[in-house]
Design brief:
It is a single chain. This protein has eleven helices and ten strands. It is an alpha/beta fold. The protein has one domain (12-249): 3-Layer(aba) Sandwich (Rossmann fold). The chain has a six-stranded mixed β-sheet, with helices on both faces. A hairpin with a 2-residue loop joins strand 4 and strand 5 (77-78). The radius of gyration is 20 Å and the shape is globular. Bound molecules: adenosine-5'-diphosphate and magnesium ion (MG). Adenosine-5'-diphosphate is lined by residues 23, 26, 30, 48, 50-56.
C-alpha cells in the first residue's frame, strides 16, 4: 500500500479540488467548492461552527462520502473509483466522538488486535503491531485490562491504538475529544501530538481552539466553505474572521490582546497560557 503513495511525484497526501456535496433534502450544500491540499506529515486542524461541514469534509477523506462534483485524491487515489475505496480506507484511520461506539471487545489488547485479525494478518505480526500501537498511545500497562474499566480518554486512546495497528498513513479525528473530561482531552492531545512527531499525517476536527495551537495549519469552515487557512498565529490574529465564523480564540490569545490594548509590550505569536506567562515574566 505504501508504494501507492511513493509512486506519486507530488508530496501531497490529500487533495480536494472544487469539491461540492449536498445531502438529500438539504437546502444548501454541506460542502461548497472546497479546495485543499494536505502534505505528508502535516498536522491540520479543522474548525468551524456546528453544521459548517467539518464532518462532511472528514468523511470525504476515506470515501465514506463521495463528492457530487469535484475530486478527492488520497494517496494518489481518486475516491470516486470503486476499486480505490479499500486501499484508501487502509491508509486513512478515522476516530469519532464516542469511544464506546469504536470498541468492539472486552479486553484492551483484543480490541487493538481486532482490525489486524480481520485482515488475516499472521499472529506474530499482530502481537508486534498491538504492542507497538499500545506503546504509541501510552497504554502498554493496560493491555490486559477490561475495556469497561477505562476512562473516556483511555478508551479513545485504545480506539486510536486499534487504528494504528492497521498501519494507516493518515489519522483523521472528528471531535475525538468532545466527550472527554479535561484530563482525558489533554492526554489524547498529547498522544496525537506524539504521533505527529513520529511522522503521521493528522487531520483533527475540533471545536476547542486551545487544541489547535500546536498544529501546522488551521482550516476555518463556515457554511460549507473554507473561509480561512493558515498557521495558528495567522488565524488567531484575524479577529474578524473568527467572529464572522462564530469562533472565539484561545483564552491566552484574548488575554494577550487585552494586555496589548492596555499598553503591555507582548509578542504577537503568543498562543498558550505557558507562552503568555513566560513573556509576562520576561517583560
Ligand atoms: P459539522 O461537522 O461542522 O457540525 P456537518 O458536516 O455534520 O457539520 O454538517 C454540515 C451540514 O450538513 C449541516 O447543515 C448539517 O445539518 C447537514 N447534514 C449533516 N449530516 C446530514 C445528513 N445525514 N442528512 C442531511 N443533512 C445533513
Ligand atoms: Mg461534526
Amino acid at each position: 500500500m505504501y508504494t501507492v503513495y511513493l509512486e506519486q511525484e507530488d508530496s501531497f497526501l490529500i487533495r480536494f479540488e472544487h469539491v461540492t456535496y449536498q445531502y438529500e433534502n438539504a437546502e444548501a450544500p454541506a460542502l461548497d467548492d472546497i479546495c485543499l491540499t494536505v502534505e505528508k506529515g502535516e498536522f491540520l486542524a479543522i474548525v468551524g461552527h456546528n453544521g459548517s461541514g467539518k464532518s462532511t469534509l472528514a468523511k470525504h477523506i476515506n470515501g465514506l462520502l463521495l463528492p457530487a462534483s469535484g475530486t478527492v485524491t488520497v494517496c494518489g487515489l481518486d475516491t470516486k473509483i470503486e476499486e480505490n475505496i479499500l486501499p484508501i480506507r487502509q491508509q486513512v484511520g478515522m476516530a469519532f466522538q464516542n469511544p464506546d461506539n469504536q470498541l468492539v471487545t472486552t479486553v484492551v489488547e483484543e480490541d487493538v488486535a481486532f482490525g489486524p485479525e480481520n485482515l488475516g494478518i499472521a499472529p506474530d505480526e499482530i502481537r508486534t503491531r498491538v504492542d507497538e500501537a499500545l506503546a504509541s498511545v501510552g497504554m502498554t500497562a493496560f493491555a490486559e485490562k477490561a475495556v469497561h474499566h477505562l476512562s473516556g480518554g483511555q478508551k479513545q486512546r485504545i480506539a486510536i491504538a486499534g487504528i494504528l495497528a492497521l498501519r494507516p498513513e493518515i489519522l483523521v479525528l472528528d471531535e475525538a475529544t468532545a466527550m472527554l473530561d479535561p484530563m482525558g482531552r489533554t492526554e489524547l492531545l498529547e498522544t496525537v501530538r506524539s504521533l505527529h512527531d513520529t511522522g503521521m499525517t493528522v487531520i483533527m476536527v475540533t471545536q476547542y481552539m486551545e487544541e489547535t495551537t500546536g498544529c501546522d495549519r488551521i482550516v476555518v469552515m463556515n457554511r460549507g466553505r473554507i473561509v480561512g487557512i493558515g498557521t495558528p498565529q495567522e488565524i488567531f490574529s484575524k479577529a474578524d474572521l473568527l467572529s464572522d465564523s462564530n469562533l472565539v480564540p484561545p483564552e491566552a490569545v484574548s488575554i494577550r490582546d487585552l494586555l496589548k490594548q492596555r499598553g503591555c509590550d507582548l509578542p504577537d505569536d503568543i498562543l498558550t497560557a505557558k507562552q503568555l506567562a513566560e513573556a509576562l515574566c520576561r517583560s
